[in-house]
Inverse folding.
């Protein structure tokens, strides 16, 4: 018998800072919008477990998009993008997310992202607390230096495998082998964008002097980090959350930097708690 | 109890050569590397995904492409069946613990998929320190 997933995909074209993007997104569910950003150099399949989670999609309209240059979202169609090095900035990244939410007519969405998606969640909480009901920065911190490296697209090495295996031990050894290899597989597909994404992650994103300006009571910030994350270790997230008014930190045991992708069954336990806290603070 | 280094080398060679994940993409996995475990050092020479030789008593002029150097305590953590956070891989330990990666990094990067798989075989072979 053929088994169809309830998840569907669509494209929407938007203009962001003069760049025309045809954006691919997956969605399933109804109710409160929950829009999800994948990690750097990856794509929206990282959210496959959440997208098919009946319990959550019963009350949440889950949307997981591919950032331009990732997955099925092309680079801009109206610029000769191949003539300049890709470096994602905080300004453009935030403008893109807000434009996408506007195009999808999302009312008070909750924004969730992991790694560089988590860091942009903090940027959104700072810049646009009026536009988002809450944010869930996963594996995020105020500052995350050290990963803007030439190795991710070095022409003398197999960049696909460098990206896939270079992030391998960002995952916890307890996570299921299949899910870790699927995450590895996704990472082999994004090597051309990975380094440019990490320009935002490790260079342009720096909120060390801005955390006190985040209005965590107006737009709740629920941060979650796995104990096996060496890049944004738990203490970095906890230290960040502590400096945000009303900030919440949840430590996730025995999981790593790609929790939604490497071990969804564990991640969903913590995610449900984050959503419960948001309901409690916003209803 | 500390393993005899020759017995360890035989076990590590056997695990490597029998590993299906390395075997699935073995061609061109050819390089040499040192494990510097503080109390002992070994040089592992790979050829097309198989161990060609493990030098268990390297001399000062014996060559290799790259080296992983850390304390014996760190290597013992690498070899736990379920290692603790920050001892669960070479990048974690180089960012957060005392592991140093030295030599020709490009050779490591060219062979990163298979080397990463092979490194984790230490969880089954143990270490001789």
């Amino acid at each position: 018998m053929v088994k169809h997933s309830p998840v569907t995909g669509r494209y929407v074209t938007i203009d962001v800072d003069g760049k025309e993007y045809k954006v691919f997104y997956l969605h399933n569910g109804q109710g409160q919008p929950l829009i999800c950003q994948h990690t750097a150099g990856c794509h929206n399949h990282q959210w496959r477990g959440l997208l098919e989670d009946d319990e959550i999609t019963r009350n949440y309209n889950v949307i997981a998009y591919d950032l331009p240059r990732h997955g099925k979202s092309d680079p801009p169609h109206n610029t000769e993008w191949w003539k300049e090095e890709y470096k994602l900035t905080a300004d453009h990244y935030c403008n893109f997310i807000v434009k996408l939410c506007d195009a999808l007519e999302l009312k008070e969405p909750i924004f969730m992202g992991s790694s560089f998606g988590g860091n942009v969640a903090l940027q959104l909480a700072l810049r646009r607390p009026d536009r988002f009901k809450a944010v869930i920065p996963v594996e995020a911190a105020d500052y995350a230096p050290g990963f803007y490296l030439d190795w991710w697209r070095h022409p003398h090495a197999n960049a696909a495998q460098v990206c896939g295996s270079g992030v391998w031990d960002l995952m916890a050894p307890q996570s299921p082998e299949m899910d870790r290899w699927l995450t590895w597989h996704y990472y082999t597909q994004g090597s051309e964008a990975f380094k440019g994404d990490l320009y935002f992650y490790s260079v342009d994103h720096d909120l060390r002097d801005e955390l006190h300006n985040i209005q965590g009571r107006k737009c709740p910030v629920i941060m979650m980090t796995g104990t096996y994350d060496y890049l944004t270790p738990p203490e970095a997230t906890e230290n960040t959350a502590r400096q945000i008014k009303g900030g919440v930190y949840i430590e996730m045991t025995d999981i790593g930097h790609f929790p939604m992708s490497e071990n969804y069954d564990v991640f969903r336990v913590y995610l449900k708690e984050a959503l419960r806290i948001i309901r409690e603070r916003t209803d | 109890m500390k393993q005899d280094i020759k017995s360890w080398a035989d076990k590590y060679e056997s695990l490597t050569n029998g590993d299906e994940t390395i075997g699935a993409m073995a061609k061109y996995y050819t390089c040499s590397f040192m494990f510097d475990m503080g109390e002992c050092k070994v040089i592992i020479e790979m050829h097309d995904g198989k161990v060609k030789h493990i030098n268990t008593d390297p001399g000062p002029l014996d060559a290799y492409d790259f080296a992983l150097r850390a304390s014996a305590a760190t290597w013992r953590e690498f070899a736990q069946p379920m290692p603790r956070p920050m001892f669960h891989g070479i990048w974690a330990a180089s960012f957060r613990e005392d592991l140093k990666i030295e030599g020709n990094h490009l050779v490591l990067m060219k062979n990163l998929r298979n080397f990463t798989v092979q490194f984790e075989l230490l969880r089954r072979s143990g270490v001789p320190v």
